[in-house]
Design a protein that fits this description.
The structure is a homodimer of 107-residue chains. Chain A has 107 residues and is α+β, with helices and mostly antiparallel strands. Chain A is 59% helix and 14% strand. Chain A contains seven helices and three strands; from the N terminus they run ααβααββααα. The structure holds a DNA duplex (30 and 30 nucleotides).
DNA sequence: TTGACATATTCTTATATCGGAATATATTAA
DNA sequence: TTAATATATTCCGATATAAGAATATGTCAA
């Protein structure tokens, strides 16, 4: 059997380096397909397809603006990845410090 | 061209759900191949292969113990993923709160 | 309406992967 | 040494991708 479909979850979606670059480029802004293709020196069809994948897993949201299609990051979905990798945080920080930090965050 | 090799970086490695499950199961402990295969109900060869991928990208470290091969998580590598996804943190928390938290962490 | 611009989709080709079976390689115990 | 245990590796078939070219679709401007 082959690997799970790339469109099925955010972890698969960010496995592709160009898709991470696209997310990095978009950052906190709103960008069109052409903006991205120009900046990252990728073909337009390629960018469109990557954006479609990112959209399918909820990593970006879309807004039509005339002829342009503007993409924006959906932070909530990225947070799931951050949270997952954060589960291991206590193994790289001291346990005590972690608990303390958590307690402070609750306040 | 096909996607980049799965063994090339941690992002690719954790794209596979079973590999995430393996990491979750190992957690802060040290586990043998059989431990993992039994717990996650996977075939031994399958587990060995997944562990090899995780090892190639530095997500786990190995220690031979008699007939057993014990695996342990390498938190540093997981941290790179946490840090990457954390770059977008300021988009889901308020910018100010982020800066404040960061400043506090410096102390 | 027609032309130009912006994006999406389809098709093809080359590769990457996964799981499972079978087999090979260690390492300990008798 | 030989058997048993624990892992790793190889080979296979089925599927998933990714890029690029060509084409389709959508939208505005004249």
């Amino acid at each position: 059997m082959a690997r799970a479909s790339t469109t099925s979850d955010p972890f698969n979606a960010i496995a592709e380096p160009r898709r991470r670059h696209i997310l990095e480029f978009i950052g906190g802004d709103e960008r069109s397909v052409t903006d991205i293709a120009d900046a990252l020196e990728l073909g337009q069809p390629s960018v469109s397809k990557h954006l479609q994948v990112l959209r399918d897993v909820g990593l970006v949201s879309v807004r039509r603006d005339g002829r342009k299609t503007m993409y924006r990051i959906n932070p909530e979905t990225l947070r799931t990845i951050h949270d997952w990798s954060g589960m291991f945080a206590r193994h790289w920080r001291g346990q005590l410090r972690r608990i303390k930090a958590h307690a402070e965050e609750e306040r």
